[in-house]
Amino acid sequence: MREEDLRKVLLVKAVEEADTDGTLLPAADRAAAAREAMRNAPRDEAALMAARARTLLDRIAARHPFVKDLLDLLGRSWTLTLVLVVLGVAIGAALSALDGTRRINVLAFPLLGLIAWNLAVYAVLLVVALRPPAPRTSFLREAVASAGARLAASRIARAKAFNAPLAVALQKFAGEWRAAAAPLLLARASRAFHLAAGAVGAGLIAGLYVRGIAFDYQAGWESTFLDASRARGLLLALYGPASWLTSIPVPEAAQLEAIRWRPDGGGGEPAARWIHLMAATALIYVVVPRLLLALLATLRATRLALRAPLPPTLAPYFRATFAAVEGAVRPARAIIAPYAYELTPNALAKLIAWIPAIAGGAPTIDARAAVPYGEEERHRTELATLGDDANIVVLPFSLATTPEDENHGTVLAATRDWLAERPGTQLIVVIDEAPYAQRLAGSPERLEERRAAWRAFVEARGLQVQFASFA
Q1: Which among 337, 462, 454, 335 is positioned nearest to 398, based on CA atoms?
Q2: Element containing residue 431 per DSSP (H, E)
Q3: Which of 43, 51, 257, 328 could cross-link 37 (Cys pair, CB 3.0–4.6 Å)?
Q4: Domains of the chain (ranges plus CATH)?
Q5: Which strand (E) or helix (H) includes residue 25?
Q6: Alpha-carbon span 395 to 380, nearest angstrom
Q7: Where are the alpha helices (DSSP H) in 131-181?
Q8: Angle CA(81)–CA(86)–CA(87) in degrees, nearest 5?
Q9: Burial, 430: exposed, middle or buried (Cβ in 10 Å; 0-12, 13-18, 19+)?
Q10: Reported pTM
């Protein structure tokens, strides 16, 4: 599903769930939109939901035009990227004149510091790319990614004054969109930062040349610890690639000694060749790598925008909204596949009765025998036997059990990865609180601690968890 279609679907879904009495979207309009989608859209769940959402959104926007503005605000925007790029150019230009003199120290900040910073960033990005677990998002990248959501929140807050139910729905939509589109938004934030960092290098280059045209710059060096031969070694490491690219040689040690700043004010030489070397060095180490990283982020963002991952909540939503349309929804089949938790007959009956409310319909139920603790590989192998018609997989666990990476984590990860190849199948992870709640009836704080542990454990694997009591 395309990004803009997913936004519309999630917005209409939020409105329908909040508008239980049909004030914003009458039931007749909802049913008519489903039938129209079935007539005109391809027989694909994503396409049907998108077509239906477009029809219903037009009806919502006809009464509340600001809703479409809100959609655009949460969508693609180059404004913040442009602001960051302009800021980067300004910072780079300011770096070129930081010391306020007409002397360029070829061994010192700003160029050396700028390159060191960028090389450190590249090293971190390489480590993150090679590290198996998903990395934590940096504060700045998260701030840029959520900028649209923060602006939208202020508009939604104003909507409470004239339509409280719509404001509640839009608030829920903004949260669901941010969660569903997090990879896309973060890819765009990465692109913005890479472009801004490249702009700092470009601003530094422009500043050096502009000031070099307007002023008579002198270039030299000074050091407490380095002599001319050691300074040349450092300059070769720093400017060697630029020297090869521009065919401007790095001076020999004797020439470097001659341009060394002296206490009497002597030393230095016209800075033209050093400005060329510094510009080429900034291009090699900063501008070009950052543009390549921005291109990679753009490709990732484009891929995610064209094929946005669907939240698991859309599978039951589709079945609920198209249940009355003949031929739209195939009969649902739910598989209960417990691991390390043997449900009692009573608990199993209550779980079966609980599933329709979560799954968006009444599926046929296939309850499998529990796989014993320690047989994670068997649980993974049995996934292959579920059949192509299984579109709901229920993983029940007991809150009385402490989650363990090598056991419960292995089962969750294997099921998640298996379902990634079956986009039409919904996974429901449910924790039965009854056994633990009965044991700790007088300690609600310990019950909440165990809930928090399971919630963090499941969400760390990119999944959502439900809590219920099947006593």
Answers
A1: 454
A2: strand 426-432
A3: 51
A4: 79-217+271-306 (no CATH), 330-468 (3.40.50.300)
A5: none
A6: 12
A7: 139-145, 147-159, 164-180
A8: 95
A9: buried
A10: 0.73
